[in-house]
Amino acid sequence: MTGKRADIIAHALRGVIVVIVAAVALAVSQSCSDKGNDDGGKQETPVNQTEIDIDPAWSPDGSKIIYFRNYASDENHSDTQWVWGVFLFDVAFGTDSVLWEDFEATGFDWSPDGQRIAYQWNAQIFVSDLARDTVKHIESIERSHAPRWSPCGERLIYFIRLGDGRGLYSYYWNTNSSYLTVPYATYGSWMLNCDSIAIIDYSDGDSSDLSIYSLRAESRSRLPKIDRHKRGIAVSPNGKSILIARDGYGAYTNIWKYDRESLQYVQLTTEGGNNPNWSPDGQWIVFTKVDKDNGHLWLMRPDGSEKHQITF
Fold this sequence. Notes:
Structural class: mainly beta
Number of strands: 24
């Protein structure tokens, strides 16, 4: 991991017009209440963004970061500067390129062999190769979010936020079947041993707690409580730390880290941070940093040091 930065290759002007809501919350899903059934709770201050890079995910070999780039055009539909779609950032060279142009996908996660990518499109889960020659739809009657591969086999988890069956689901690739694994849970991230999952837990009413769910014992272990809604989760490769994106109640969402040895939470960003994701070697965290106009990808060390921007 070099951490090199370089100017992004200028994109050709295109006549593509996209109108999206300017008040963008950077999370894949809104915060929940009523055990995950309502949106409720505090909302972030709206940000008028002209460009936004979200949901970065590292390839298993650490050489690439996939992410989605979107932008908001003005009311006259005159902002056509940015190519939008799914991009790949080359870590060694510090450059990015369009992978799937004019395609809106989020919630990325690479398969352990690096050959397939799970993603969310139109509130459904899909898996495809990089060329999108082969695409598999994991069907759900409700809106589905945030797929995550098990590092130990052909299994995915994802969550459904609404309806009677809301919670975290498991999908088995070999049998093409899904089942509700953890009711009243959102945003799962696999632990090292693959028999437990870190989750955002709504089983205790409106509180969005951090918990570890044991698949073998079918039980939850709540971690020390921290207030405010959580919008994402990422377990470190060594299993010792868990990142969460935590609402700021009127300010930007920021990234916090829970240390499983000290049992303490540490705030890693203070000026905005969301969509955190670990590098495979655990040496870097990629995240989206937002200012009043834009949201770009940044890197930082696990202690919050050496922050620097990598997309522009």
